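[job 4471] stage=fold_predict status=RUNNING
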Amino acid sequence: MNRVVLQLVAVGICFAIGQALECYKCDIGFWKLCITTETTCSDGELCFSGEGKAAGFVDIKKKGCLPEAECNQTEQVNFPTSGNTTVYSITKTCCNTNLCNAGPGLPGTPGLILAISAVSALLVANF
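[job 4471] inference complete, writing structure tokens
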């Protein structure tokens, strides 16, 4: 039994080391709505969550991958429209674990799912 557990842990570590960083991606969201998909970052990129305000009252959200050098900075974004320019600023905060840029909801859900999956696999292996 101990041998099987050790083998499962070793295989899990090998997969974790060889994988690129997975992040949630949302090109733009407003208020609390930010429809996400999953994306794989390139080398040198981290997951980010961006939050800002437009026109002083519209909450802007963004998520995705970002080069590490651009992390934890505030960016000014300009939208030219009919000669007027609407400006909003967005602060992008980075993290470095898979799917760490999740939105509000149940914190730790990806880790919880992984833990439940691991326990289930061990129980199935015993039978």
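[job 4471] summary: The radius of gyration is 19 Å.
[job 4471] exit 0
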